[in-house]
Design brief:
The chain has 4 helices and 20 strands. The strands form 4 sheets. Strands 6, 10, 12, 13, 14, 16, 17, 19 and 20 form a 9-stranded antiparallel beta sheet that branches. A 6-stranded antiparallel beta sheet has the order 9-8-7-15-5-18, with no helix packed on it. The chain has a 3-stranded antiparallel beta sheet with strand order 1-2-4, with no helix packed on it. It has one domain: Jelly Rolls, CATH 2.60.120.
C-alpha cells in the first residue's frame, strides 16, 4: 500500500512538471515540492542580500564567520532613502560630562575587567571595512519565516503600569525587571552593565539585558532604539552571550531588526561586530566583567549614535528612520527581559541576568551602574525620579540604589521558575 502510494506520488510529481510548464496549477506532492524550493530560493536571495562581498573573512573560535565588508557596501545602503547618503564618519557632538570610568571603584575586587569579542583572537578587520557576522542558511531556517528573521515579536517592550492598560502587560510572554524614567524629553542614555551567560530553557526563549530609548505611545507607532547583550539560541544557534542592537519605528511590526540584519543602522567601526560573542563573561562569586553602552542624539545632524566601551563609536541610526525619535525620547528603560513560553504549562526556568535575585549583591547578582540620561543641552545627567517595574517579582526582581562610586545603579534578575514562581 505504502509503495503504491509512493509510486502514485512520483507519477503526480512527473505530471506536475508537465503541468507547470503549461502554467496549470499543481496538486498533491508537487505543491509541497514547489513550496520547499520556493522557500529555498527565498532563503538564498535573503542571504545574498545580507552577506555582502568580503574583503577578508575571519573565523571565530565559536564557529562564527566575521566578514570584513567595505563600509559603503553594508546592508544599510540597501535602504532606498540611503542611496546617496554620505557616511558621517564621526558625530558632530559627544555628550558632555561622561562619567570617568577609571574612578569607578576604589576596591580592586570591584574594578571592571577588560572585555573583548571572541573573534579578535584570530584577527582584525582592515580600516575602511566593518565586521559583519555572516548569516548562515540554518540561521534563517530557524525563524518562523524569512520575513521574520532577525525581528523581535510584537510588544516586547516593558510597559510600566501607568503607561498602559494592565491587560497589555503580560500579553506576549515577555517578562522584565527594569528601572525607568519618563515625563521629560530625553536625548540619550548611558549605562554600564555586567555580562553573564544565563541559561535558557527552550530554544525559542531568550534572555537579554539592555537599555531602551523610547518615543511615542505604546501603541502601533512606538519608536525604540535598544542595545545591550543577549543569549538567543533561536537567533544565533547557540547559547553564547552576544552584543546586540535593535530598532523599530512601528512597535516591532514591519520595521527594524537586530544588529545589521536589515537596512537602517550605519556602522563606522572596524573593531566591534554586532551579534558577535562577548568574552569573557562574569562568574558567580568570581571575576565580574562589564560593558558600557551610550546612545545619544547628535544635536546637529539629528542621528542617534551608539558608543560601545570607552572609545568605540559604533555608528548611527539615521533620524529619518523614526517619527517620534526624530525629535526626542519620552522614556528611557534599563534592565532585563526574558521570553517565558511556559513550557509544560509552568513558568520557564530561563534565567535573567546572573540567574540570581538582586538582594545577593555584587559578584552574585547582575547589575547596571552609572545609569545616566542625556538632556536637551547634550549633557549626561543622573536620572530623576527612577521607577522600577517587574511583572512577577518572585521570578525576576529589581532593586535600585546610589552611591559615590556607582552613581545610580540597580541589581536585577532571577532564576525564573522556583518554589515561589510557578
Amino acid at each position: 500500500m505504502g509503495s503504491a502510494r509512493f509510486s502514485r506520488c512520483r507519477t503526480v510529481e512527473a505530471l506536475v512538471v508537465v503541468f507547470s510548464v503549461l502554467g496549470m496549477v499543481s496538486l498533491c506532492c508537487g505543491t509541497r515540492l514547489e513550496s520547499g524550493s520556493r522557500q529555498k530560493l527565498e532563503v538564498q536571495k535573503h542571504l545574498r542580500r545580507l552577506n555582502k562581498p568580503a574583503v577578508k573573512t575571519i573565523e571565530s573560535p565559536d564557529g562564527d564567520l566575521i566578514d570584513c565588508v567595505h563600509m559603503s557596501h553594508q546592508p544599510a545602503f540597501d535602504h532606498p532613502f540611503l542611496k546617496d547618503h554620505k557616511i558621517q564618519m564621526r558625530p558632530s557632538f559627544h555628550p558632555e560630562g561622561l562619567f570617568d570610568e577609571n574612578k569607578v571603584a576604589e576596591k580592586a575586587s570591584e574594578k571592571p575587567k577588560p572585555i573583548n569579542q571572541l573573534w579578535h583572537v584570530n584577527g582584525k578587520c582592515p580600516e575602511g571595512t566593518i565586521p559583519i557576522r555572516r548569516t548562515k542558511h540554518e540561521d534563517v531556517l530557524r525563524a518562523s519565516s524569512v520575513k521574520r528573521y532577525g525581528r523581535k515579536k510584537h510588544r516586547s517592550t516593558p510597559i510600566p503600569p501607568r503607561s498602559a492598560e494592565p491587560d497589555l502587560i503580560n500579553q506576549s510572554g515577555h517578562q522584565h525587571a527594569i528601572a525607568y524614567v519618563e515625563g521629560d524629553k530625553y536625548y540619550g542614555a548611558k549605562a554600564t552593565m555586567n555580562v553573564w551567560e544565563p541559561s535558557i530553557q527552550q530554544p525559542n526563549e531568550f534572555s537579554l539585558s539592555q537599555l531602551w530609548i523610547l518615543g511615542g505611545s505604546f501603541g502601533e507607532d512606538l519608536n525604540s532604539i535598544e542595545a545591550g547583550w543577549q543569549v538567543s539560541p533561536d537567533l544565533y544557534g547557540d547559547n553564547n552571550t552576544r552584543l546586540f542592537t535593535y530598532w523599530t519605528s512601528d512597535a516591532y511590526q514591519a520595521t527594524g531588526c537586530y544588529n545589521l540584519l536589515c537596512s537602517g543602522f550605519i556602522q563606522i567601526n572596524s573593531d566591534i561586530a554586532m551579534g558577535a560573542s562577548i568574552s569573557p563573561v562574569s562568574a558567580y562569586r568570581n571575576s565580574q566583567y562589564d560593558i558600557s553602552i551610550l546612545v545619544w542624539k547628535d544635536p546637529k545632524e539629528g542621528h542617534w549614535w551608539m558608543q560601545f566601551g570607552n572609545g568605540y563609536v559604533m555608528g548611527y541610526w539615521p533620524s529619518f528612520l523614526f517619527s517620534y525619535l526624530a525629535d526626542s525620547a519620552s522614556m528611557i528603560e534599563w534592565g532585563g527581559e526574558v521570553v517565558n513560553s511556559e513550557p509544560n504549562g509552568e513558568h520557564t526556568s530561563t534565567q535573567m541576568g546572573s540567574g540570581h535575585f538582586p538582594d545577593e549583591g555584587f559578584g552574585k547578582a547582575s547589575y547596571f551602574r552609572n545609569i545616566q540620561v542625556v538632556d536637551g543641552s547634550n549633557n549626561l545627567k543622573p536620572p530623576k525620579g527612577i521607577g522600577t517595574f517587574t511583572e512577577q517579582p518572585d521570578c525576576y526582581d529589581v532593586q535600585t540604589g546610589s552611591n559615590g562610586d556607582w552613581g545610580h545603579f540597580f541589581y536585577y534578575g532571577g532564576p525564573g521558575r522556583n518554589a515561589n514562581c510557578q
